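Ticket #4471: complex job returned nothing on first submit. Input attached below:
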Amino acid sequence: MNAADLAERVREGDLRLHELESHADPETAAAARRRVVANEAGTSLDSVGESHLAAADTESTIENLVGTVEIPIGVAGPVPVAGGEREAEHYLPLATTEGALVASVNRGCSVIRAAGGADARVTKRAMTRAPVFRVDGVVEAEAVVGWVRDHETDLASAAESTTSHGELVDLTPYAVGDSVFLRFGYDTKDAMGMNMATIATREACDVVESETPAELVALSGNLCTDKKPAAINAVEGRGRSVVADVAIPNEVVEERLHATPEAVAELNTRKNLVGSAKAGSLGFNAQAANVVAAAFLATGQDAAQVVEGSNAITTVAAREDELYASVSLASLEVGTVGGGTKLPTQAEALSLLGVRGGGSPPGSNADALAEVIAAGALAGELSLLGALASRHLSSAHADLGR
Ligand SMILES: CC(C)(COP(=O)([O-])OP(=O)([O-])OC[C@H]1O[C@@H](n2cnc3c(N)ncnc32)[C@H](O)[C@@H]1OP(=O)([O-])[O-])[C@@H](O)C(=O)NCCC(=O)NCCSC(=O)C[C@@](C)(O)CC(=O)[O-]
Ligand SMILES: NC(=O)C1=CN([C@@H]2O[C@H](COP(=O)(O)OP(=O)(O)OC[C@H]3O[C@@H](n4cnc5c(N)ncnc54)[C@H](OP(=O)(O)O)[C@@H]3O)[C@@H](O)[C@H]2O)C=CC1
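Support reply: We reran it on our side without changes. The output follows.
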């Protein structure tokens, strides 16, 4: 059946919009859906439908497909990074519609290059899922928590039976009145790991329910915390915790950022530390989310997790001959397998960074991705701090962003 006929059957109530793939190939189904939706809205979805991405290749990333949205992608760099896993110098792909962003990160990368490169380290790996259980009260909560502490190995065996890659590395119980939360943390290797951690935790919950009086209320009890601003992620970390730093000779700061090291350091204290504290912000940084979001879109990460990616602290210190700068991203959730990483353009962006697919050893590609994003975030911080210190922010955006 062709797209027009399928669209007609949907309009007649004979087929539901999300059932089209059962009656036609994925491309025809998407075309029919476009017709129905565009017709109802009295608009055109021709641009949305003009895609290089084959509908069949979107499987397991989308439902009710109508096409694609295009986001420009630029590159900043190359940015030399001496990471825990590897030393590399790559262009960082950034997908954004904010004029001046790539120029800014590019300038920051040029500063990092002139300084001889950034160091970066992943300091923690733990993708978390925290189910919530119902108990009678505090006495039962104590008993359940005690049982969980005594049976961590059993729970790890149950959880790890669902995956050949994931490892349970942390299990922290929290009791609140008649609720018990168990925050499971997994090393998910090269996967961002949210599906993996959720499936594994479901298995462990079955054991808790069969061996204790606790009753599962929800597999996610929001203490995980996924896709919501939360202090627990900023403090304990989630996904990968990663730090990047650089020491920049004073003359490079003055030449490329048009500000003195002292001015940049003072600005960082007043803006990123004092200002953020006064605002009650979880992000003690200037624009880490800009780089995280643009890198996430380019490389097929889950965009909603930019929320956690913005949990970053930027520190800057004017030393005798150099400016020390660092960015610590507490909860950067990235993968090089799974999710949107397999889509062709996103996979190419991962290839540009040399981190496409599973790493050897497993986890090393996702570590390297986290480290280069952290170095990119550092570049963004340096350039924006420079622009603010030299009063160039508004003119830069007037020139490049409108
Ligand atoms: C715009 C610049 C970089 C000019 O900076 P400049 O030093 O005047 O420019 P330049 O022409 O001398 O070039 C210096 C370097 O910048 C890069 N560069 C320069 N132009 C380009 C370009 N067209 N395309 C790519 N790269 C570019 C490039 O690396 C170049 O080095 P070169 O390669 O020539 O040796 C600077 O003024 C700047 O970084 N401004 C800050 C802009 C910024 O950071 N915007 C980010 C978004 S702001 C936001 O969303 C968050 C905010 C601000 O609300 C958060 C908060 O509250 O703080
Ligand atoms: N379920 C949920 O609650 C949520 C899901 N998501 C979505 O979850 C998806 C991401 O989940 P995620 O678990 O990362 O991905 P996938 O569900 O795509 O699973 C990836 C699988 O790849 C396998 N794998 C192969 N090689 C490797 C390797 N080198 N390292 C790690 N795993 C490897 C693993 O299989 P095996 O385990 O068998 O070893 C792993 O489970 C995204 O689409 C995201 O949007 C986001 C938020 C919440």
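Strands lie at 73-82, 87-95, 118-129, 132-134, 167-176, 179-187, 215-218, 239-249, 312-318, 322-332. Closing as resolved unless it happens again.
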